[in-house]
Write a structure and sequence with these properties.
LytR-like; alpha+beta; 25% helix; three-stranded antiparallel β-sheet; DNA-binding; OB fold (Dihydrolipoamide Acetyltransferase, E2P)
């Protein structure tokens, strides 16, 4: 999806036009979010308050992901990637900025990884006091000792 932004002081109120050949669920969500508010700034605040949607990129397309669809967010090769059940997406924000807007179902397990607690398949001991985590979609990572206490607290252990 190609996105263009025009800023003009001549406008009385912001408006958006969306051109598409197929009306997808994500486009309908975007339209609903834009129509629900008087301006884009209020819309961004509402998204952050609700903690329910994350805008990500796949190629030229912008996709709005529900938090419940996110399995893991991880920094790889200096890029922040968001993993769902069978796809991965890019997001331009650094991990700490994304973490600020996530709900309590997400917990940081290492310097470079945040996981959705609802998507965990198993947790097992690993090397040197670390724990190993496997998600329901097959993704694996280590829980570092630094974040192990917070992880256990998030699981009420």
């Amino acid at each position: 999806m190609k996105v263009e932004l025009f800023v003009s002081k001549d406008l009385e109120e912001p408006y958006a036009k969306i051109y598409t050949d197929v009306l997808t669920d994500n486009i309908q969500k975007a339209m609903a979010l834009l129509e629900d508010n008087e301006n884009v700034r209020e819309n961004e605040e509402r998204i952050n308050e609700n903690n329910s949607i994350l805008a990500v990129k796949k190629g030229q397309n912008i996709v709005l992901l529900d938090f419940e669809d996110i399995f893991m967010i991880r920094v790889e090769d200096k890029q922040t990637k968001v993993f769902t059940e069978d796809m991965d997406y890019l997001v331009k924000k650094p991990l700490y900025q994304i973490e600020e807007n996530l709900d309590s179902n997400f917990v940081r397990v290492s310097k470079s990884t945040i996981v959705n607690l609802r998507k965990i398949k198993r947790v097992a001991p690993s090397l040197k006091g670390m724990m190993f985590i496997e998600l329901k979609n097959g993704l694996k990572d280590n829980i570092s000792r630094k974040y192990l206490h917070d992880f256990k607290n998030a699981l009420n252990l």
